Amino acid sequence: MQLNGKVAVVTGAGRGLGQAYARALAAAGAAVVVNDLDGELAEQTAEGIRAAGGRAVAEHSAIGSTEAADAIVATAVGEFGRLDVMVTNAGVLRDRSLLKMEDADFDVVVETHLRGTFTCARAAARQFKEQGGNGRLILIGSPAGQRASFGQTGYTASKAGIVGLVRTWAAELERSGSTVNAVIPVALTRMVATIPGMAELVEKADKGEPIPADVRAGGLGTADDVAPLVVFLASDDAAGVTGQAIGVGGDRIAIWSHPTEVAVESRAGGWSADAIAEVFPTAFQPHLQPFKPDTVPGAPEGK
Question: Which PROSITE patterns does the entry mention (predicted)?
Fold first, then answer.
């Protein structure tokens, strides 16, 4: 898979999944703008790419504002002449359950994840249009946005919103040839190290030790297992893939379904509460949807 001549931005690329995406895109031939709030980490990642023979520059904007998004795109155009791929990976966590969630904790998570995805995608889409289209928006979601994730009110709201944006933006940008997709990654990174039972697996991944086969088969691996999907979606081979949420982790890749009606009943003249109660057990109860996440072999239940 070759991305020669393409220019990519990866936000939040100083470590973890973002770093893996940046490295993989560069290894495939793309020039990469490595964004991270931690300037030192961004510089280290960019230097590592250059040392391996790739092209990369570091960029230190805090994701969220329009000004930051415009600065990131301007860096790509100024350094490499164009922009072809925007990977919106930057994020923060402020985990609290609903009753304990403070406004400031909720706001900073939504600002970075959801608003940051919006501002960066908008800035990139404007540049794609100026270049004649055919750009790639790759938005990073999370299983937390697809299923319940206890204690992650702001994070789940943001990640679910991002997948909703994928469908809308795919429809809006289709005529220009630009694609919009979400990657739903599952990986052993520092963000999951605090989950009970996961620290040992994260330590194995950090040391480069093999991940147990049953864990990998269940869809949990390293950041490097996720990166190839990002490279594919950035490529010309993925020109016909848009509006999708694609899960990846360990040995598994999966297409997530779009929300759709699973049970429908009509009643002439409308419904009373009593009428709903009468038909609900047989017409609707069997179709109620699960909300808790699937489990991964070797991982604690619920994550």
Answer: ADH_SHORT (PS00061)
Domain coordinates of the chain in residue numbers? Answer: 7-256
- What single string gives the DSSP state of each residue in the chain? ---TT-EEEETT-SSHHHHHHHHHHHHTT-EEEEE-SSHHHHHHHHHHHHHTT-EEEEE-PPBTBHHHHHHHHHHHHHHHS---EEEE-------B-GGG--HHHHHHHHIIIIIHHHHHHHHHHHHHHHHTS--EEEEE--GGGTS--TTBHHHHHHHHHHHHHHHHHHHHHGGGT-EEEEEEE-B--GGGTTSTTTHHHHHHHHTTPPPPHHHHHTT-B-HHHHHHHHHHHHSGGGTT--SEEEEEETTEEEEEPPP--------TT---HHHHHHHIIIIIGGGPPP-SPPP-TTS-TT-
pLDDT mean by block of 10 residues, the chain; 303 residues: 96 96 98 97 98 98 97 98 98 89 95 97 98 97 87 92 98 97 88 69 80 87 94 97 96 95 96 97 95 55 35
Which fold would CATH assign to domain 7-256?
A: Rossmann fold (3.40.50)
State the catalytic residues: 155
